[in-house]
């Protein structure tokens, strides 16, 4: 978001600053690594467009930040250098399957995997990408943690949200509640409309019939 100067329509002799959405394409890994504050909106765009002419994509919305871990000048910091970034986007590589290793804790001064080395200014345009997201929070124990810590205010995570991916809200096609009794055939469309959804629209796997020892 950026501010632009404009004349106030109701008072032309006055100026106002109004917010304006600006777009910026991040072309390299260095540009797409955010140690501190992230842009308010950041999303991965595909090469296809929806019917409104907008690029289909997914927005990443980080709910909580882990904050500072150890000083970057620390001799052990490279072992947990993934924690430098709220979000870092890199090209997908088979030789970079994880951001750390269980062996880093044994010798943090010479780590087996140093995530900071993944970010080497390679281009990320029209490439298969990986979004490395660090989410967390600092919890200092207090008396209200007894007998158990409340979850309110202690949530952690991120959201991966469709952003112009669909032409409209897909939930409007969700079926209403269905009620049927044990005497009715739940596989019949007139009883259970959900039973007639196409196989591709089902979120459940198709399990084959299961039998065991005659049962």
What does this structure look like?
The chain has 215 residues and is mostly beta strands. It has a domain at 25-172. Helices cover 0% and strands 23% of the residues. The chain has no helices and 8 strands. The strands form 3 sheets. It has a 3-stranded antiparallel sheet with strand order 3-6-7, with no helix packed on it. Strands 4-5-8 form a 3-stranded antiparallel sheet, with no helix packed on it. A two-stranded antiparallel ribbon has the order 1-2. Strand 4 (43-49) and strand 5 form a beta hairpin. The mean pLDDT is 88.
Brief sketch in words of this structure:
The chain is mainly beta.
Labels describing this entry:
three-stranded antiparallel beta sheet, 8 strands, extended, copper ion binding, Cu_amine_oxidase, Amine oxidase
């Amino acid at each position: 978001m950026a501010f632009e100067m404009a004349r106030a329509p109701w008072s032309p002799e006055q100026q106002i600053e109004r917010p304006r959405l600006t777009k910026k394409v991040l072309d390299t890994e260095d540009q797409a690594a955010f140690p501190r504050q992230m842009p308010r909106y950041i999303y991965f765009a595909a090469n296809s467009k929806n019917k409104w002419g907008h690029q289909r994509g997914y927005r990443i919305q980080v709910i909580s930040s882990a904050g500072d871990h150890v000083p970057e000048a620390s001799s052990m910091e490279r072992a947990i250098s993934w924690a430098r970034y709220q979000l870092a986007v890199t090209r997908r590589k088979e030789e970079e399957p994880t951001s750390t290793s269980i062996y880093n804790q044994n010798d943090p001064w010479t780590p087996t995997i140093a995530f900071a080395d993944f970010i080497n200014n390679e281009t990320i345009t029209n490439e298969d990408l990986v979004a490395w997201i660090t989410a967390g929070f600092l919890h200092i124990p207090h008396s209200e943690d007894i007998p158990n810590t409340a979850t309110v205010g202690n949530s952690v995570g991120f959201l991966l949200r469709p952003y112009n991916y669909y032409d409209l809200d897909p939930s409007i096609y969700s079926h209403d509640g269905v009620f049927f009794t044990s005497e009715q055939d739940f596989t019949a469309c007139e009883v259970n409309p959900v039973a007639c959804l196409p196989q591709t629209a089902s979120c459940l796997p198709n399990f084959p019939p299961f039998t065991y020892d005659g049962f």
